[in-house]
Specification:
seven-stranded antiparallel sheet, 22 strands, Diaminopimelate Epimerase, Chain A, domain 1, six-stranded mixed sheet, alpha+beta, Elongation Factor Tu (Ef-tu), domain 3, 3 domains, single chain
Length: about 400
């Protein structure tokens, strides 16, 4: 079995090893500092004897396999190996940051449970099982960054399954085999979590922690994205600039921005509801023109709600009719639906809109597009209707 150097010291990134096995691109060493990934953290990369290591993982025999495409290594070779240190350190910071962040979030919501974490150079997030307010997240950030300033030591210890101290540890025992060691990572005396990953030695190495995004993660819960170190500083500045720009556009005080945006959102929801109702009333009064036995509905609908237009088009098409709508806003939005196979909506839309400097596309039974000149609404609709009648 491979001696796992990273278990003893996560700061070792170059080392000498002997090649124990080679199978094509797969290389096994007698010892390695390459972390094979786990606990949501991606694996290390680097090089073995100047050959790139692109992936690291455990095989079925619990040996660590290094994928080295195109290597010319042989069993018994003594090789000098290097882990990509900048990448490794970023991952160490990120994994430690995740522990600190989740522990801080849980202080704001005791019922909070972790669903999944993901730590890579490109993105770092934790998925939790329920939504959190931005006030809760802000308080968690404050606690985490105070812990960073307090420079707590980060230690690892091995605990037995029947150790009473295990009660204070975040752990899912059902995921740990009876014969597996339980490695506990402690951040000072403020956080304890079962984890076998690699971490920094002191919280000050994180420099700063910032939550920069919260999104719904489907049925799993909510993704809380964060950054640490220099990336956190850059993100904080960028978010500050965006916030100040928004505040300037709104024209309110900094402390009133969230309330002002909330009020604007409510006003927009009211206006959208009124728009939907108005559009429904407009389309409900449309009378079709009979064209060789096919009902043709055509209308100019100023600023109409697109969802209502789509629903109306589907209703017309399902009954074998044809709908031609032009909605006027900043541009002309054009929709054409047909329940008659004689009318190819995609061909008609492409031809008609092209005459007015617009473009569109879709399928034979439904197509849509736009025209930049809003003054051409009547002409566009007339051309659309004429093209439909010609097809019929």
């Amino acid at each position: 079995m491979t001696d796992e150097i990273f278990r003893h010291d996560g700061y070792i990134f170059d080392f000498e090893a002997h090649v124990a096995a080679v199978n094509g691109d797969d290389v096994i060493l007698d010892c390695t500092a390459f972390y094979p990934g786990g606990g949501g953290q991606v694996c290390d990369t680097g090089s073995i004897a100047n050959c790139k290591v692109t992936e690291v993982s455990y095989n079925k025999d619990n040996d660590i396999v290094h994928k080295c495409p195109g290597n010319d290594l042989h069993v018994g070779d003594t090789v000098w190996c290097q882990v990509d240190w900048d990448r490794r350190y970023d991952l160490m910071q990120g994994h430690t940051g995740e522990h600190l962040l989740f522990g801080s979030l849980k202080r704001q919501c005791e019922e909070l449970s972790i669903v999944k974490i993901f730590i890579s150079p490109e993105t770092k997030y934790v998925i939790v099982d329920r939504d959190l307010t931005w006030e809760q997240i802000r308080k968690a950030e404050d606690f985490a960054n105070q812990a960073i300033r307090d420079n707590h030591s980060i230690t690892h210890s091995i605990m037995d399954r029947d150790d009473p101290e295990l009660e204070k540890v975040r752990i899912k025992l059902d995921r740990i085999g009876e014969d597996e060691e339980i490695t506990v990572v402690a951040i000072g005396d403020i956080d304890y979590s079962a984890c076998s990953g690699v971490h920094v030695l002191e919280t000050s190495e994180l420099e700063m922690l910032v939550v920069d995004r919260k999104v719904k993660a489907g049925k799993e819960g909510y993704e809380i994205h964060f950054k640490v170190g220099e990336a956190a500083k850059q993100s904080a500045v960028a978010l500050s600039n965006v916030a100040l720009e928004v505040i300037d556009v709104i024209g309110c005080k900094n402390e009133d921005a969230a309330k002002a945006v909330s009020n604007m959102k409510q006003e927009l929801e009211v206006k959208n509801r009124l728009l939907r109702d108005a559009t429904k009333r407009m389309v409900s009064h449309l009378s079709p023109e009979d064209v060789n036995g096919t009902a043709l509905y055509s209308a100019i609908l100023p600023g109409a709600d697109r969802n209502v237009m789509n629903d109306t088009m589907e209703s017309i098409r399902s009954k074998g009719g044809i709908g031609a709508f032009v909605s006027v806003s900043e541009t002309l939005s054009v929709m054409l639906a047909s329940g008659n196979p004689k009318v190819d909506c995609k061909a008609v839309i492409s031809d008609v809109l092209g005459r007015f400097g617009g473009r569109g596309g879709g399928k034979p039974d439904f197509a849509q597009g736009g025209v930049p000149d809003v003054e051409k609404a009547d002409e566009v609709l007339s051309a659309l209707v004429a093209a439909v009648k010609e097809s019929l």
